[in-house]
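It is worth pausing here to work through a concrete case rather than discussing structure prediction in the abstract. The textbook approach is simple: state the sequence, then state the predicted structure, then interpret. We follow exactly that order.
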Amino acid sequence: MRGGWVYLLANRYRGTIYTGVTADLRARVSQHRERPSGFVDRYRVNRLVHVEEYPTIAREKAIKKWRREWKIELIERDNRDWLDLYEHLIGL
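Step two, the predicted structure:
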């Protein structure tokens, strides 16, 4: 399987968390922000708070099974204030 990105979106600091996987991170996060649907739309999760590059989607499947507290620890390890990383992603 080809590699890709595992990412976490949130609606606010320690709010609702969405876990996703994609081969094109910039395009996928832009899609969530510009044309949200389903869970992303319902809970307004559009703040990119964590990104990891992995060779398979196994990491995403593992993270989806994690307890909420573990996901929070993962986010806060590198992004303590839950800042939106989207601007860094698109090069602003």
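Step three, interpretation. The chain has one domain: 4-90. The first helix runs from residue 25 to 34.
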